[in-house]
Structure formats: structure tokens, C-alpha cells
């Protein structure tokens, strides 16, 4: 519900247009701008007069673009190409007029300090505002973009007796159209094609590749591996010899003990 400050008895014949509200429906990242900048076509505009009842149906489309060298894009969540284009226009106007106005935020230029420079800036601003051309700016496109489409379902007079306007904005369905760019030929497919071509031309397989790696390992590290194996074998042989000597000693002690016991038995 919107309430206008104008009185019901006010004469509106002298006004350029009827009093009401300018409604803009756009992505939350895009700030309002009155200039004709890049990306402004993604903003839906509706004018609502006083004492109107409007039903607006929304549809949403989401686009996901892939960044490339020829078509760069920004994946920042808060990035707005419309804000970038507006800042570019402000910088161009400030450079031409050698000063800035109070509405031109983010421009590194001194504000206009006399009526002549301010009039010149407003004149240049008006020329650009009325023109249909865009200034060439180096602004990336957003990688993720959302566009809203509006459809006016009904528009009728609201008999409320007050300076009211009622606006209904809603989604007709819970479906969102998503359009996503994907690489038709990526790095994984490129490596797979190379492997398939090599396997076809050279007759290579996974087992054959393992065998080649084994031979290369033996070729470069064969001496070190043989030396390590020889050292391990020597340690194993030494352990076996020590084990055999221990067994022989134990057996000799047992036999001598048995002989002494036999001699004692014979004496008795």
C-alpha cells in the first residue's frame, strides 16, 4: 500500500505528468541509475498512478556464464556492471568538466566550486542523459545474473477515498529458468583424447605403461636398489648363521648332560 503526499483537491493540470510512483524491479545488486548505461535493459519499469490497484506477475531467469579470455566476467557476489558503467560515465563527465557534482559518488575529482563550472557539468550531464549512445567502458559482465520479467495481470481503479495505490507483486509459479554455459571441450576431455590417440598409435595400455615405468625405475635407480637388496641379504644370512650357532651349542650342552647322567646310573 502506497500513500501519496499530494492532497485530493490539488490541481494536477500544471504538472508535466500525473503524480504516482516509478517502480523498478531488478537484481538486488543493481542500484538505481537514471542514465542509459550498460545493463539497464535488465531493469523492469512500471509507473503506478494514484488510486490504482495493480497486480504484477513475476518470472525469473538465472544465467551462469563461463569466464574466458575473450569474454571476461566477474564472479564477485556484490559486483554490478550497471554500477561500474555509471561510475565510468561520471568519471568521463568529471574529466570533461574538470569537477564533480554532489550526486557523483566514487569519482576522484574535486567538486565544482562556482556557478560556471556547475552549469557546465549539468549541461554535459543533460546532453548524455538525453542521448541514446553509451560510453565505452571497460566493465566486465557478471558471471551470475538474474533477470526478472513482469506481466501486468490486472490494472483497475482503487475506490478508497484516499490517495492510495495498491500493488501486488508475486510469482506465478515456483519454477526458475536457469541457463548455464558449459565448456564443450575441457581439459579432461583433451587429456582423454591424447591418451586414446597414444594408445591407438603405440599400442599402450595400463599394464604396458606400468611395465615401462618399472623399467625406467630400474634403469635410473637399479644400482641403488641392487645395493640395498644385497645389504638386506647379507643381514639375513648373518642372522641365519647366528641362529645355527645357537642351536649347535644348545644341542652339545644337552648331550653332555645326558652322558654324565648315564655314568652316574652305571656306578649305581
Overall 3D geometry?
elongated
Structural class: alpha/beta
Roughly how many Å is the radius of gyration? 43 Å
Helix proportion range = 40-55%
Mean pLDDT: 80
**Ends apart, CA distance between termini:** 129 Å
Strand runs, count: 9
**With helices defined by DSSP (H or I, 4 residues minimum), what is the helix count?**
4
- Topology as H/E string? EEEEEHHEEEEHH
**Structurally, how many domains make up the residues?**
2
User: In percent terms, what proportion of residues is strand?
Assistant: 15-25%
Sheet of most strands? 5 strands, mixed
Low-confidence stretches: 264-268
Question: How would you characterize the overall build of this protein?
Answer:
The chain has 268 residues and is an alpha/beta fold. It folds into two domains: 2-180, no CATH class; 205-268. The protein is 41% helix and 21% strand. It has helices spanning 81-97, 115-130, 187-202, 206-267; strands at 2-3, 20-25, 44-49, 52-64, 73-74, 141-142, 144-157, 164-171, 177-180. Strands 1, 4, 7, 8 and 9 form a five-stranded mixed beta sheet that branches. Helix 1 (81-97) packs across helix 2 (115-130). The longest helix is centred in the C-terminal third of the chain and has 62 residues, at 206-267. It starts with a strand and ends with a helix.
